[in-house]
Records
---
Amino acid sequence: MNILIKRFIKNYQDVDNATVRNDYGKFSSVMGIIFNVILFTIKLIAGLLSGSVAIVADAVNNLSDASSSIISFIGFKLASKPADADHPYGHGRYEHISALLVACLVLAIGIEILKSSIEKIIHPTDINASIITIVILVISILVKLYMMYFNTKTGKLIKSKTLIATAQDSRNDVISTGAVLLSIIISFAFNLNLDGIMGVLVAIFILVSGLMLVKDTLDPILGIAPEPETVKTISDLISSYEYVLGIHDLIIHDYGPGNTFASVHCEVDSKIDVLLAHDQIDNIERDVFEKTNIHLVIHYDPIVTDDGITMEIREKINTIVKGIKSNMSIHDVRVVPGPTHTNIVFDIVVPHDVTYTQKELRQMITSEVRKINPKYICVITFDLEYASYEQH
């Protein structure tokens, strides 16, 4: 297979290149179509000759796999289309949609196999399997094992959920074909007809796997939390710059492989010259894109660092907030004094595992802050946590 990859995929080692990545996907899909059509043909012949509903069902499953590979090919083809006026973020999510279609097809096949297997249990027929049938099934298992290995390796290489889903489907085929083979061997050895029962077990396994695939492919379409490694990489890159005191409100949007956008607030000492700070922010955005291929937009947050009162109040409020929930954090603390009261303005990042309502949090924090000074009025903005990362 490596020889074919080198022949048909130019610059095959440059897997971060969008064109190379799509070529890998299309190549894997074409190989899937060829292998599955061959397996469908030989299994169908074996199933019809032996009268085994399980083998015929397994053959139909291979035909669905060929259809899945066609869908994957179309998905990679559409995902490679450049951005246009109607889709300025590109078409990368077509790949996620194709993976979802593959998962739905797996479910449909599982339902059909379940129906035919139950019918076989109710109205059993004799199986006339031969050594040729067994050899065909063994060959099928070996081919599917290789396809599982190849798609897993390629899927991880180019970070493709579609190919990972295809690899899992190949694993399902190994198990289902192995179950069919086992039923035939038992039939030979003990004269027991387990064809329908094995068909039901195979169908249940396929259905469970299909549901798991649906979940895995729906997540990126709905908008899944970014990988912790990605968040840490961006956070560490930004925080490595001299004038950055801290970051917050990091949001990452995934529009498909190679189309990731992010925004973040960077805290900078207010005494730093604005032009100098802006220049560094430009450098950070460029650096992040070059090292991660993520389009980053930074919001500049000037922080007062020489006001002792503000810094003291910030520390006290931070202690109060951490006492309520250790993974909550505050930022953008401002003190606005007045003749009768002082507004303490700040934002709180609330992780998703916090069970208190915003009203409850506001009351708890305000009550504790008023103990510091009865004239303090809390003006709180609540932020949801879109990416879990260590606060700097």
Note: The chain has a mean pLDDT of 85.
---
Amino acid sequence: MSQTPERLYPPFLSLCMIVKNESQHLTRCLASAQAYVDEIVVVDTGSQDDTVAIAQQFGAIVKHFDWCDDFAAARNFSLAQVTGNWILILDADEELVVDDRQFRQSLATAPPELLGFALSRTEVTLLEGDLAGGVHVRLFRNDRQLRYQGRYHEQLRHQDGKPLTVAELPALKIQHYGNSDEQAVLLKTIARDIPLLERMRQEDGLSLWLLDCLARNYVRVGELEKSQDCYHEAGDRLFPHLLSGEPPTEFFWVPTLLYTLAEQALEQEDLETARLLVQRGLEWCPNYPPLNYVAGEMLLLLGFPLGATAYFNTCLQLAQTGNYYRQDPCPRPLMTTEPACSLGRAYLQLEQIPAAIAAFELALSFDPNCPIAQDSLNTLRGA
């Protein structure tokens, strides 16, 4: 922690964390942030390793919280221990990257109505895929009205129900290492995530977002039938909205879910369901790249390659301009490599060979190892 007098008392920026058995990651996390914060608060929820000792080595204020299967409860307890004007939230398996050491000035001069800042987060490993977008509000005012809600994948909310007014802060970024150990992720999925989500499902029901989380967790452990059960429930809940055209009130994760369900429908050659999912998805969220991508794939399957090119080009344009829907994270290949490859396939069907070659070359510029683009170009150049 910096020892400049103006940053000692009262604390201006506090790092706030909840941890359990994080000795593998915690040193990296604390070392990355220590120089930029005035206070470190670490709440331990039952570690049996060296986590607490590591936190103490960095001068952290260590508190203890009895784990109760509720991430929001633990987060809110940790917030109550903080004394800084601003709060930075990191997980132990994350690292703070500071591109501009003067970022604190942005906090000091922030208008009163601005409650926080969103930081971009990058996956160091690709176990979860290369994702773009997603809103990560990790830096916010120490305001008692700002508290977390949700037992799992907790979200920051204003207690009065007011919308959170936040801005992006490019000076700070987060690197996530938590998926670097696939076996550890698998064990955590089996021992913690699935049981907790199933309890929540039985007690209160799950949001569409958490239903998708549970489905993906079941895929990770090879329980494909249980995963499909979750998706069937999600589809049933979305069906009235698909018919009426009125999007769900809680829209977060709906675009991702519509894309996933449409992909499944195409795999099952259920073109009518896929058409309805894609139609509503693009009405509700026209600038979400995966929905444009699956729309193009559907048209290719139906034999309309010219129409498909428009959707694939839209994906590429959204990536180029950065003007895409960011509330849900977007798999980066679905707005780069995949639409470029599919554009090449569409031009082949249209017998526009130079355009097809250009599209496959574009795909290789995103991913030099793309097998479809490599094989297609080898065939076309050898013809």
Note: The longest strand covers residues 166-176.
---
Amino acid sequence: MRTLIVSDVHSNLTALDAVIAAAGAEGPLDAVWCLGDIVGYGPWPLETVRRIRSLGAVCIQGNHDAGAIGRISLDTFNHAAREACRWNGQQLDDEARSFLEGLPDTVAVAGFTLVHGTPRDPLWEYLTSHTDAVAALGSIDTRDVLVGHTHHQFAFEDGRGAALPGLGGLTVPRDGGRLVVNPGSVGQPRDHDPRAAFAVYDSEADALFLRRAAYDVAATQRAMEQAGLPEPLISRLSVGR
């Protein structure tokens, strides 16, 4: 069974479709897990929610999802994120809004805990260090944990530390220590690689594969310009930061 794992799509439908195509080119996809922030920043919030729903994805809520539906105050976001989140929320129809409102903060599936930030602070805390990873593993009942939020792709193995993918990706077997894995951001990578980031879990191989997919960045930028979204959010897509 092959499961596509995505996070931080951020209303970038072009990037999401490129990820789906790239993952599907390596074999049939049997399931999709989404680690939150379906909306925010990008130009296609309604269309992105609809695409995620059409995949039958197991989803959790991210802080931008929560901000777009009014669960949390937009005062907690910086100016550009706040303006984009407000605009994203205005584009949602009742069905999309209801879907986002119904998303849980965490889900346990197939031996993984799915969370956007960290298990102790699902919406806001960034998992960025060895100490954070150890704390996350110590606070869950499953073997491993999948996180998003930082927009950086990495794998942490208990007892060995963190591993970063190279240009060709990274294979992470589950035959060693417990894992904390971040598939990276589909819609707004910040690790200096503008390609959309994702992961695939192959249950037969019992391994995770961290991958990237090129997409039409310029098309997303044009749509953002037409929507009047903040310029810094547009230009950063070209350099992946």
Note: The mean pLDDT is 96.
